[in-house]
Fold these 4 entries.
Entry 1:
Amino acid sequence: MNWLDALKLAEKDQEKFIARGKKIVKRFRDERGTEGTQASSEDKRYNILWSNVRTQFPAIYSKKPRAQVERRYKDADPVGRTASEILERALQYEIDHYSDFDAALRCSILDRLLPGRGVAWVRFDAGDQITDDVTEEGEDEAAEKTPEPGEQLSADDLFGGQYAKPAPAMPGAMDPSAGMPAPGAQPPGLLGAPAPMPGASGAPMGATPELLALMGMPEAPKKPNTAGYECAPSDYVFWEDFRCSPARTWEEVTWVARRVYMGRKEGGKRFGVEKFNGVPLTHEPIGLDKDVTQPDDAKKAKIWEIWDKTECKVIWQAEGVADPLDTKDDPLELDGFFPCPKPLFATTTTDTLIPVPDYAEYQDQANELDELTGRIGMLVKAVKAVGVFDASQPAIARLMQEGTDNTLIPVENWGSFSTAGGLKGTVDMLPLDAVVNSLNELYKAREACKQVIFEVTGLSDIIRGASMASETATAQQIKSNFASLRLKETTQDVARFASDILSMKAQIMSSLYRKETLLEMSGILQTDDKQYAEQAIDLLRNDTMRNYRIEVAADSMVELDEQAEKNSRMEFLQAVGGFLKEAVAAGQTQPELLPLLGEMLMFAVRSFKAGRPMEAAYEAFIQKMSQPQQPKPSPEAQKLQAQQAQAQADAQLEVKVEQMRGQERMAVEKYRTDSQHDLEAFRAKLAADAADRDANYARELEQLRAQIEDLKSMRQASTQIAVAELKNGGTITPEQDMAADAAALSPRAGI
């Protein structure tokens, strides 16, 4: 197929749509006249388009959606539940961690509300660790190299065909003046698309068998990437840069294409310097002087990335070059082949995919509104205090010009002034009654025109935040419901668009992400379902089983009421709590009902979104409670068992009593023996003490006897001395007698 002719045919098919879309965007931005100048009274406008879009946008999309991955069938499938949890957490991680998904949705929705078509593109990015071999002159020495067997290639090498490291850029960087990617903001990444950030390199599968053979790897349809960094970015596609085959419905489309812009250096890295040198650089950023020759660095080549569903090929075609720059087999193997979901279309019919913008449906009323606003501006300018006065009374001019308070202005020739009727006779003001009446009628007409526009667009007073105090709550509710019905189709289409993007990201994750990446992103190993992690990964790798057992969707993207979320959780707790109360009582009386009650409980838990985190805990509890119970014995058997138990208890009691008695006897005997030993020891001690006392008494007695004998001997000696002295004629006084006794006793004083 000649892709240049196909692209020209598609451009011809969309020529009127693009021209009208540019006018609508210009009207939305209110670009008129010279920049910075004030519009004249007759050129005043009422930008109802800006107001409507700014009102509809938050009603359609006001927050990031939450990924919702569920089992297709709400049955007892722990592996399917774990796989759903892994995929949901991985998707939510990328939604929260990277801004590309939210930015792509916001830009696509704005394009849907203005020109009438919003497009997003999904790709796989495995990073890049290949060194940049580009020389200073810009020659890529690695472009013509053939990889050796076993050599590690990045995703850029497999799907881009070159050894080159793209320059880092933020995802979705755009040139606001041109509405196109800014120079340098789209370095070539996977499939020639911009990489959102630099990362590690790896070898994702999905490549051609020839490249797999060169890498020394066995041929496989989808083998997970072995790199450290993996991501599935969502790129916004500018509404003028999208083409598709002419068709009546999206299902009939056979190819889609998006336009990217590359400089000479970027294109040389991506497609090879020699091949890209022949590509003309036809795109120049808006604002450059056309009369001055611009350097090549400021110019870009227009490259079309085409996905042909019929041939399952991806083609890169440059404008101005006959042959394609590159062609690859399907690298992602998505279910619908196309890397973009069905675009967000405005009004379409079954005969063409070219949408009709919403503004086109009420542009006549918008023009009427602008005309009324212009007339109002002119009349407002005409409403002013002007008139004529008697030239012979110049003081009257001072009265109007000076306008001072509490001041009297002198008048010459007061007599003639008062004769002429005073101020009434000398001043005549321009009548404004007709102008004011016309102005009031124009205000009413403008309000009526606005109401017609609101009826056409479906923007009720409730959505616009306006209401009358006299309206009842029922009337306001009817308006709110009416507005919700009119916006429901658009809201559902945006939810479908976001769900399709998430579904494509989920397929890329399941097929190309490493097992370690999925486990780390999901944190499933820290949950109660970690035992099913390996089986869950195997389920995700199996395309058929994954599609049968798992479905991916996006949660509501409209700002939810926190109280409503709390009410939902309380409703779940009340419902499950009430059921458990009844189920426990029934299970105690009839244990055979436990399996049925468990299934009924899980039927209720799976129907509540708030119960999903606790589903594993409930299943473990039910499994434990549903284990087979011992059959209940008959009354006779129970009586016999009771008697046997009583006899056994009596025997055990008798044995215990006998043991206690024996222990008591042993204790008494031991006490008696110990007491006898203590008594004998005490007696021996008493005998020893008595013997010691007797010996001491005997010694003391002997000492006394010896003293007495000494006293006797001394007394006899003193008596003899006294007798001798008496015989010699002397006398002995009592004092001498006592002194003699004391002298006799002095040698014994120490006894």
Entry 2:
Amino acid sequence: MIWKICFAMAILFVLAGTVVYIICRKQGASRIQYLGAGVFLASVTMCFPVMYMQENAGIALAMCISHSIRMFVVDTGADDILSMLTRDILDSMLLPYKILAVTLYLLAPVFTLGVVLQYFSNTFERLRLRLKKKHDLYIFSELNARSLEIAFDMWSCAKKSGRRLEIVFCCSDKKDSVNTDQEKSARKLNAVLLPEEIIHVRLNSQSRRVNYYIISEDDDANVDQTLKMIHDMTGGSAWYTKQRLCQKNVTLHCYATNAEAESLLDAKDKQDLRVVLVDEVRDAVYEQLYEYPLYTNQMQTGGAKQKILTLLILGGGKAGCEFLKAAVWSGRMISYKLNIHLFDLEGTQLKDRLEAECPELLPDEGNYQICIHEGDIFGSTMQRELDALGQVDYCVSALGDDETSIRAAVWMRRHFCAKAGYTKPFICAYVQSSAKKMAVSELSENTRRKTSLSYDIVPFGCGGAYYGNESDAAFVLEYLGLGVQSHYFRLNRESDAESRRYAVQNFYEKQGNRRSSIANGMHISTKLWEMGYGILRVPENGEELECYRRCVKPVDFAEILASLSETERAAYYNLEHERWMAYVRTEGWRLSSSGGRTLAEIRACYELYCEEFKNQNYLAKMHPALVPIESDDPSVATLQQVDDMIVQVNREKGLGEYYPDYVQSDVELVDHIGEIVSGVWCGSEGMQIAGTLAKEGTCVICSLEDIRRYNYNERKEKRV
């Protein structure tokens, strides 16, 4: 009877230790001692009946403990116990007992090895990394709150979509209490923690994708590390020449916002590396304007008289200015004229700074108007100035501090709720804290009908969603940007792999190329909205795909375009050029001119640099195409006149034949919106975007009614 009891108890001890170890591991703590304790107690219990045959209970227990210790230090062999086990004593229990004994003899030294390896944890972590040879890796340069947030978002998205990824944190050997807590959080992701800097983590990327995130709190250090990594991954470096590194499978994300970062990264030859300069504030603004465009609360006018769309921005800091710049080009529409009002305590200084950074942004150059007001957001005059604005359609609170931005957003909601005779505007707030963003989205008041009335304030900010693709916006923006790039490189279904490689290489070669193409792709949604259509990313599987098939009927853009009159198509061609001009002005470009806007003045300026640059002057940020397609003013040159002038100057100076084709370029982009959205440029093998394989049919164009029906039914099914 004692043999059966001890056998059962040994099994229970091992199981108990294993369960406790697994629970602790999931909570971010590696408590291998619990597993070892279970094995030790099982060993003592397993030995007890053997020793009890020769000694009394007390002596037998002491001998069991001594023998178990010897098992852990490999000072005894299984024969010491197995030789004393006979069928006469155990009968049918002989084989199970022998298996248990052998198993414990093997587990005991393994546990000892594990404890020893804990003292050499760096070696153990590197061993874990070696074992992940075929897994896609996401490597962060530092273990900090920001990198953890992004990593958790990536992990949850990958788990939701059924993908497997592995996360690595570098410089994780700090021993302060904050870092200890962060290590516990990282363990929940089963992350590998390495002590060395990211520039020393040289991994094989021939058969997997490796994404590096250089994300310390020091922008200069991030840029410096990125430049070193580019150097080590290109040219004649051993890492590259020994065929351990496949450049097209590597992406470097450099987190920096200073202007010099872009110039320094652009100066390096990246070959096939994908290098992305991450400006978290600007990226968050782009995502917000894609998900909630300026026309969120508007209706198509159907060709009626142009209406006014008023945007109110509170705060002229980084987020407020980025929103203003993005709104200028993303809000270019046929049906609406955009009026932007920005309020800031230092409005005069802000205006001077914007005029210096973007010389042609503030003057009323097109279908928009910008007014910068100076004053206290919470002052007594604010309400009077808001009343003077009349109808406000879209509000942004971006005052730098989370609490202040939330306070201003709530104040605006209350102000407009008390204002009779006007449509309530869309309100959003720039909030960096994930916890506060969740709380803001849940802000509400109880009504007399026992229901909750929401404040309808949409929080946005750099909270990880953009990089983890929890929102479709991150993926679709990159997808559309690559689609625009592929259009300019004339990619189609039949294009070969080398043509696609070259287009992708050019997209990531200069940060301005990527950003410009993404802005162009973003505005496709605006053009389609004015036509009564939108873009929808097709779900990959599950209930969402079934809902999509029931609710959505994709349309052919060629048929949409054919249904428009010649005048209507011309309006969209002109809109694309107006959008482009608005965008390059927000990037600090100005007209290539010696003073005015006549063709002669533009020619005089162009002739000064045409031997160095065939089109725009990159050093001076001057572009000759910043003129309208049509103009009734003889003192203002038209786009076709400038195009013809450039062709003529190049011929006269013997610089060869050069045809800018400005007008045709705008026409072709609008005409090929269908191909850009459908993804025919991905080819048969598809194209990797942020760890997701994009292919033809990834996105579709469909009616706004279908999109509303799909979104409604999808939310309804999720609630069920």
Entry 3:
Amino acid sequence: MESKNNFKDENVEVLNIQSEYFRQKKTNINKRSSIEFLSVLPKCIVIGKPVRQSELVYECVNTHETARLLFGSLCLLFFHVAENSDEYAKFKLDHIADRFPKFTEYINQHETTDSNQYQIIKSFETYLVEKGLSNQSVHSVFYFIKEATKLDVLGLEQVEKIKAICSATKLIPIETEQYPLDKWFTEITWLRGVMSAKGKSSVYKRLASPKLLMKSFNLVVSEIMFFLQKVSRDFTDTLKSNGFNPEQLSIFDKMKSPACRNANKLRVLLSSISKGQQKMLPEHIDLLIFDWISESVREKVNARLRNENELIKRNSEKEGGDLWFNKGVIFDEKFLEQLFDHLKDNQAPYPVTKAEEICFYWLNCAQTVQASDALTLKYSDFVFHGSSSRITHFSCDYYKSRAHDFKFTDSIDASSHNGKAMLNFLMNRKDSESLLSLNRNNVDRASSSWKGVLGRTLQIAFLPFVENSIRQEIKHSKCSTLFLDLIQCLQTWETMKSTSWVKKQKEKGLPHDMEAYRKATRYWAPNQWFTGSMIKTAAVHSDSLNFRVGTLVNYNSHTPETEQSDYLSSNNQEHTNTVGRMMRLVMEDIETVAYRPNHEEIESRLKERQARTELISGTTGKLESLNLSNQEEHDSQVILNDSQGDVILVVESTETVVEFLHYLEQAKTHYSLLANRNPDFLEKHVLPTSEWMDDLLTYRFSKDIKTKGYEAYENYKSMLPPLFFSQLGA
């Protein structure tokens, strides 16, 4: 039951209970064991600012003791989180408040009795399902009520009652669909239009292939991580060579203002690396300036450092006023603590930024390590291969908490992009108790802000030196710029964050849900960044096979012969049923897989090849991407500047038509033999290539070129060499 300011008496009661609750908390702040539980639980709650702009009242009119206990527990948890907001995430209070409308509506219509009181939460699930709603809300209520049992204000009997209800409640699991990284990008619907307008339509279409996305993702993240490592080491070694003593910064500790302390310390550090016997590389200093200096004065600070001028506290009015130092996000206080520890003790590891840790976490998720376990990896979880002088490969052999078993990843080449970056990190941190200091809030619940550490980490890719290095590696590795271009498009075009929009809507008393935000904002931003689970799922998809050969293992104490003669007989009904089920599966598998080509794999390979194909027109000489409309065609200069290392160039010419027709004719001729002698080659190469060639001939080549090509093929086909000799074993 919901109303606005209609219950004066109830409001007084609610405020009395709230004040009593807060009074006990303040009085017994340091006496946890002596807090007395409330004799009366709240049966009404007023929710206003800062959660709601206008006050809303929710009242429990159900008179049964158990119903009031659950409603009151939810109210008490809300009071507790509101009073201790610093200890919880910002969205926690909103999340609890959002549960009251449906739960109050349900609890007031539920006929609670002593016989059904232990099924009251399960009945809430049934109530929601019958109304066609998701059971997400009941899972949240269930979690919050369990959490309320930890509050000191509930009595022992009340806690035991709630625990008994929770034990008797078996909810239907929330149906979760797989959510890979490529889906996170495709749901940002405006990305496609913007990238097409910028001549990047062919790049965006590569998003249809998780394999291409993950290859691009691994390269970009590895390059960011490798650059962070070089900057960290250069920064440390420069200070060490110049004899920098961390104690000289202690004079600023007496300053009352944290901003002044921070600005003075960073000023001294920047001066120390730009003067003296050794200097940091300019591109490495650029990253420090990017993190520490406000955007409006970065060029000025950079010029001063290059000219070895002092970074004085106040510049002349002609130069634009004060220098403003930001609080470090990448090179933060924890990084500086590690840095000073290394300067005092050479045996200590090099300092590691939180951004480098995030990259290491992402790369492990890209190796299909479970996201929750990737945060807790230790050096001992990695197995190294090679000689005593050089590591050539390494892999991760870790304990998967959900499976309660050990799992291992594929081996990583130590000379590859991600191999070099990850190995450097592991060698530097091998003596540390834990590899990462991250938690789930840092990486999997991070708000999609460019000011946070995750957003700043991605922005490193667009520093001039780093971006140039990444694009060169993309060409060298025959990779795509897909991930880099997607992030750059997000950074350039998104207009207003959801948090800012929601705040303005709340002030006006207007709808502020995500659906309304996306409708009102043309270039909207996701509420949160992509997570490790999304990366892991995309990595699995990128390397998945529809069929994998398994092994049958006999775990019994007797031999397989004894199993067959004595146990696997018609007297064993379970065995008979199992044989029947297995036979049906085997026959279905033979019918649909063994004697038929894998259509999904053929279609996947075809789409991937089409996404990479650029056609050089025989009439205009221009480059044209496949599946582009007239509005999306661009001149060759635009496409060439796109610099996709994995592009397949096809010249629209008579010779190409002859080549395609000959390949298709040979494929038809030898199809049956290939199916018997080399089915894998037929399925993975001949069929996708034939489909790709046929599509080009049918829909892409001009009529004049095809006419000339068909005439030329009829004249020369008797002289063309036969194909597939080696594949046929001839």
Entry 4:
Amino acid sequence: MSADADAGSGPNGPDSDGGTDPGSSYRDNRQRLDRGMAVMGGIGGDANVFIGIAPDEDVSERIIKPRLREGPYPADSVQDRLRGFVEPPTHAQCRKVLDSRVLILRAEKGTGAGTAAFAVLAERYGVGGITGLDSPDNLSRWRPSEPRGYLLQGLSPMAAASLGEVVLMELYSLLGRSGAHLVVTVPVETALPGDTMPWQVVHRPPPPVDVTVKRLATMAEAGELTAAQEADALRHLATADFTDYLNAHPLPGDGVEVAEGLRDLVVAGESATFVLDNLRTGSPAAAREALEEARHEADRISLMAAISLLPEQDRTVVERFGAVLRTHLDGRGSPAQAGPDKGPEQTGTHRASGKPPTRHDVLGPAFEDRLAAVGARLLPPRYTPALRYPIQPVGFGRHRSDALLRSLWLEYEGMADLLWKSLDEAPHHPGIELAAGESIGKVLAHATGPDTLRQLRPFAASDKRWRRRLVAYALGEMVQHPSLTGAVREQLRYWSRATPVPLRCTVAETCAGSYGLAHPAVALKLLDAVLDGPDTTVEGPLRTAVSFALSTLLSEDTNHVLVLDLLLEWQSSDPDTGRHSLAVHAVESMSRARFPRVGAPGVRRVRLADLLAEHPEHTRDLVIAALEDPATHDAVAEGLFLIERDPELRRRAHFLRLLAALAAVARTHRGVLRYVLRRHRTLAVSPAERLPS
């Protein structure tokens, strides 16, 4: 896999290269919104409201929480992972080996080794005591810093080759001094030195039927099933059809899928046949069979592709994308057009031949009939308070979308290019960047070769934000697979130093999501590199994207200090640089109102008072640096006056303590002294504003 994405030419290159304007064939029929309200929302229930935003910028800003992290895992995330956990047969052996501080858990893909690793660490440190590690090239260089459970999922070939008895004994000593333990999960095909055998356990998954039973019990405990419904589901589970299915599908995930199918059976009244059919059609073999059956019908292939790429999107979105793709499929693989000796039906000579004219179906099949022909269906309409219209999503059964799209994209020559081309040409609808980005990311996680990441470049270099968000969602999904983490990081590092601003915007958009939350320290380095361009000021899309990324990182408490330290570094950097320009924007915004500003994308909007309350020492250093800077002095001074005038903000921000700290450094900091004297003059003029003693 190559990180040199710029070297390749993806399908329908960047916009600047003369690519077609997406949706040009529909745009004249779309409503323009210059004033009023533009409403968008994901089908799954998330909804955002934007005021007067251009249609192409009306995009999903939903943040997907990462499954893998570098840093502490939130306790609720670990608790959710362990919901319905069934101890595998090898769990007792894992406990015993972990007594030696290090456990190497080898497993086949999809057997639940990651969940087992969380469980064995949570037994010792609780659900809030687990920290994820990013795969280093050499574990001998890593040092535990706290008495926690450390989890490393996946090893690079270099790290695996360097992992021997000497390294493991050194880790044993380091972990013992820190009161910590380390679990490393590796695929069974990864070659490890022979002297690591005492630390290895080959994971064996629990029987899927046990997983189903435990998951049903968990649903009952959570109130999702009544006792009678749980008993009814267990009776169905004991039937030959479900038993045979689980015998043929032995992974823990299969047990979870059966439990969810049985819940639908007893709650929604679905038939056992329907549930089993849904389970079976999600397999790769069933996907290939469906595509083979439809290989001569452009309408069916385009509809299956649309539903798979845009799962659970509104029927109108699916229809329009399918129509665009169908135009590209119609001539694909067709025999040469008839020559001069056309038949009477083709030449219009039916009168001379005496045959009736060919009858054309001008309506075509109804949409629901077309869905039925490909095994899809309309889902119940959905409403959210922010939407002015109902949404009727379209979908397949469980996993069928993933299997179909993966087969189309990876196994049929030229189909990936046609899907990219259709995405480029189809009209944009809010939410498709999330649906398509996640779907593409899941597919590319199974891809190989240099084009795996290279094909993302045309959308990453686009001047349309929805395309950049699509790439961000795709990369966020791909990085959840340990084998791709290094390649994605290298790709983002490469783009962060690129000259085109859209590529750097894409890096920032990627940091404003699961990638940034999973790798906060790496994300902040990328944002720093993004601003290290030729720009003396940061405006427009780049400023918006970087601000969005910072607000996403600020949405989790563990990242606050990292962000504040970076803002302080940017504030202290040379004027007329992108870093300084962004710091000025952030400090001005949080001092006078909130950062990011209202109307700009943001997950958490912070005020100066909030940061002073939560991290007084780090924020104090930022305040001093900002008061020293002529570009931000007035804004910060105004912000401090706002805090001082509000009794509640004054109390929360520990203002008296801050004031004492500022007074202590005023003699050596001209900007701080200027603020202190200005405050003194203000209080002299308005004694009523004097702080209570």
